[in-house]
Structures are given as C-alpha cells and as structure tokens.
Amino acid sequence: MVLKELTVKKDVDSKGYAVLVQHAMRYGSDVLLEVGVKKINCKSVMGMISLGFRAGDKAVLIIKGEDEEAALADMVDLFESL
After folding, report:
1. CA triplet 31, 37, 43: central angle to 5 degrees?
2. Tell me, what's the pLDDT at 64?
3. Is 29 helix (H, G, I), strand (E, B) or coil?
4. DSSP three-state, residue 53
5. Kindly report the CA angle at 70 between 75 and 12, in degrees rounded to 5?
6. Is 13 helix (H, G, I), strand (E, B) or coil?
7. Stated pTM of the model
C-alpha cells in the first residue's frame, strides 16, 4: 500500500472528475481518495463528484495492489496537472 498527501490546486469540474476516473480505471490496484472522513473509490464517477474538490482542499491518495507504484505516479501527475 502506498499513500500520498495531495493539495488540490484549483476547483475540479465534471471533466476533471471524468479524467481522474479514467486514469484510475487503468490499474488493477484499488485507488482511493480520503478527504476528511470520506474514503472514495477513484473508479466511481459519482463518488468522485461527491467530493466537490475546491482549490486548497487536502486529500490522501491510497493505492493498494500489484501495480500501485505505477498508479501512484500516474495519479499524482494527473492531480498536479488539474
């Protein structure tokens, strides 16, 4: 299992959530985001939208599985580009 704390740089719109989900679905690993008390599956569009990311929000990316290192690198790069 790998963890990475992230800070959202700008508000995320529906297109941004769709891109996050598409990237998460590329991996066999479980890809979760923890925001406050919520822990959301990044492969769920509705779950991701429910987070309502705003600039400055903090989240912890939690990845567990056989390709977790590749998934972590990809997801962190993606978050930094949003």
Report:
1. 25
2. 98
3. coil
4. coil
5. 5
6. coil
7. 0.91
